[in-house]
Amino acid sequence: MTNARPRLFDKVLVIDQGRQIFFGPAKEARQYFIDLGFQDSPRQTTADCLTGCSAYIPLTTSSLTKVKTTADPDERKYQPGRSAEDVPSTPAALAQAFKDSKQYTRLQVDREEYNKLMETEKHDQDAFRKAVAEDKNRHVSRNSPYTVSFWKQVAVLTGRKFRLQSQDNFGLVTSYGLSIVSLALLNQFFKAKLTIACRLWQLSLESLSSTSRTRPPEVSPVAR
Known about the structure:
Layout: E1 11-16, E2 19-25, H1 26-36, H2 46-53, E3 56-60, E4 67-71, H3 91-99, H4 102-120, H5 122-135, H6 150-166, H7 169-214
Antiparallel strand pairs: 1-2, 3-4
């Protein structure tokens, strides 16, 4: 992923083994991990940098019970003079470091402001819901998001389509004319098909009748 794609997002969420280790503006994510003590590679994209800071690989110490994790040395790198001893390295330590950061504090403030905004606008929301409920057709379910029934929508859209087509008189006449001609040709086709079938049936009956008339009479044996 190039550096252009992260710029398309307002915020980015980084998770390490199910723990939230960063959530905030995408443009601040890279610098946040650099301030923690991770090394910044100039040729590394922002996405690779974020995944590298949370790159953990499992190390199995027992085939039955114990599984330990450690940082991937090919992905995670520390600044000169820094190490896992003084830089948050485990998922729990990274999650706690995020909770102690200014980004987390700002996140809580934004959430409280949003909740307050929803409380102040609750009156407007209730008024809007009441207006929608009053505007609903009597045949529409109360839980339906639509204000008119399905058949009413079909009727309105059909009338709208007819009014749009009526603005083009030439196209409308041509369309209806072709439809009438097509129906007439189709009717003649079925009539001709039925006529041919009836004629064939009549010929077969005449053939059977003539065969029965020309059959020679049976001669009964004469007893000697």
